Amino acid sequence: MKITQVRSHVLRYELPRELGYSQQYYKHRSAHIIEISTDSGLTGWGECFGPGNVAIANRTIVEQVIQPMIVGRNPLDREVLWHEVYNLLRDHGQKGMPIQSLSGVDIALWDLAGKILNQPVYQLLGGKFRDSVPVYGYGMMLCREDLPSHIARFKDEAAAIRDAGFMATKMKVGLGAKDDVKLAAAVREGIGDDFPFMVDANHCYTSNDAYYVGRALDELNAAWFEEPVAPEDLNGYKELRQRLTTPIAGGEAEFTRWGWRHLIEQHCVDIAQPEVCALGGITEYLKVLALAHIHFVPIVNHVWGSAIAISANLQLLAAMPPLPGGLFPSEPMLEFDTTHNTFRDELLSKPLNIHKQVAANGGRVTIPDGPGLGVEPDRSVLERFAISK
Ligand code: CA
Prior knowledge:
alpha/beta; 11 strands; globular; eight-stranded mixed beta sheet; 389 residues
């Protein structure tokens, strides 16, 4: 069997409401879906992290740089292909867009492998530890509104996410350290004392400001403090970890085993958040998983994007060994974006219906059992939202 084509589908639509996080406001939702065709007629699907114009640039890397390297090759040789592609890209970018592009291609090769062998990806990974996973819902995005409006909205949204059945919730911060503490207090007030909440800064603080916010989060009993400082600021991460009791999470902006090595070996994070659609795909994710386990760092995958990205993560979460083991081990959670996302809700021919599953199944979602990722995109949706070349 041979690979015959590697295609990028870059999709976009205008959101009903502008959303924001600490780095920018955005009006469009986009997705970058990868399709690998073979001479057998089987097709593999993957997804690359990287929104907006980044996706358009990554399309060129996928179709003009990676495709010529792997067309004509056996799709089951995914480890060989990963290393060949990485070796040639390494001189031109060991992080960022080349690796995001490789990630989507690699995920599509895993989907294909599952279809060729008629097995779900979790089976290729060694089997599943669980049939379903708990889900946490994030929302509480920043908007162009004043602090009192933010506070009122965050309080209501947090309570609504709890009432929708999610196991925990996550908020954005980024208005400035003092205002952010008020936002976190509003969320705690909205959900009550016992419901877990997490705080995502998207690396907007100096370590000093992060410490100020982190002390308030200690008092509010936050479940984790995510990306408090710049991903390059390993010393900032280490200092915060030593000084705060709230667990420090991060890693979504890190790439490959070689990037992750520094975060893990220097004890920068209590919780590692690898992004499979960015760090190098499933092939590389497995190396990062092993590295995290060597150092006993629990993993909660970073999940963002369309239903393809969610499905890839469901396969990984099914196959993730408990760390540490026990009769009642802590379980990996699925990260779920509760904001408007047509590519999550309408892309698949059989939707995952995560909102409904969460409400009906005590905050849990079932792992798809079909071959590969276990899902198929609806081609009419791919065509309807495609950005033309
Ligand atoms: Ca994040």
